[in-house]
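Minutes, project huddle
Topic: does the predicted pose make sense with magnesium ion bound?
PN asked that the exact inputs be recorded in the minutes so nobody has to dig through chat later. Recorded below.
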Amino acid sequence: MVVDYCMATPKIRDIQVIETAPVGLRLTVVKVVTDQAGLYGYGCGTFTQRAELVRPAVTRYLRPLLLGKEVDRIGDIWHAGMQSSYWRNDPVLNNALSGVDLALWDIKGRMAGLPVYQLLGGKCREAAACYVHAGGDEVAAVIASAEKLRAEGFQYIRVQVGVPNQAAYSSGGGRTYGGGRAPAALGRAATGALHDGPMFEPAVYARRTLQMFEACREKLGEEIELLHDAHERLPARLGLQFAKDVERFRLFFLEDVFAPEDIGYFRLARKLTSTPLAMGELFNHPAEWGELVRERLIDFLRIHLSQVGGLTPAWKLAALTEAFGVKTAWHGPGDVSPIGHAANLALDLACPNFGIREFVAFSEPVQEVFPGAPVSKGGYLYATEAPGWGIEVNEKAAAKYPFGYGESGERQRLHGGWGEVRRRDGTIVKQ
Ligand code: MG
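Predicted holo structure (tokens), as shared on screen:
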């Protein structure tokens, strides 16, 4: 019997947006509903710093374009959505498109009765090794945090130390703060700055971080893998020096030692040091990573899946990087929904050139909203065998945590956007 497959293919009946912030970070989920009863899928379109813009990009622009299309034509739908705005690859469009794209992969998995990693060819490994964040105001606190995490089974640890009276990135301490996201300005009397806001001086940070690495190797030994994120805070020449200076500490990788605007410096860095380099968290456009990959100027690509438009482009990108010996290390902080993490994990398991994944703990409220999220154990993240992403979004629970939930002060005023950090003289710092 010949099956008329086209007639049987479900079509897109509706595209909805679910906004939720169970831990105060604004997460955007796109739900694609088909014309087949009970068949739908979820995708991650989280752009937490401009979260409110993703909904209209989905509902006003992608929805009318895509209603009625057959759900099994994922690549075609992706290209149609990308071309529709004429000017392409802006972060809002890419996130909106990612929401739809991941939802279609979820639907395909549900139709096949398979987890998405199986649709990508199946496992290359049993689970994905994770690196975890250790931070503190003081070096001793960083080491204590790293020792605790090592005892839990983590073998890869990112270490970040605070800088007294400065806004160091992601040290997690009280006197300093991470990324301008929860600033408590100390004022010029404490910082010595020509302004009263959060202050950061890159050379001071670089010296302090080198002291931290010295102590980490002395106390933690040689066997632990150490990572660090400079978070594009260094001017390019200082970044070059820093990459050279940390070489003797044998990092697993040094991340974002240059800002995206300074990627031309990677060619120089390659000539000067063997420190493994990770880059790409802020990339949106293929033109940004092509040269770095083809010329083997970086070791790990840190793309944020939804910022490049979802699984469809990222899977191809994984194949491109494999051909040039570059490993994957998809960006995976708390401002990626568990659906986005599940998509990262599908690639982690199915791609031979997996490098490492970023660990994030799914707190109780997150698990309440996203039941079925992947499970971590002993420093690894494991996929479930449920079809698609294996996650059912609890929309009632999601509604309990609207955008703005848990926010206060500057972050509330900026609707989840980041505030300002400035040099001592008042110059804006990239963060
Ligand atoms: Mg980073």
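Observations noted during the meeting:
- Residues 91-112 form the longest helix (22 residues).
- DSSP finds 16 helices and 13 strands in the chain.
No decisions taken; revisit at the next huddle.
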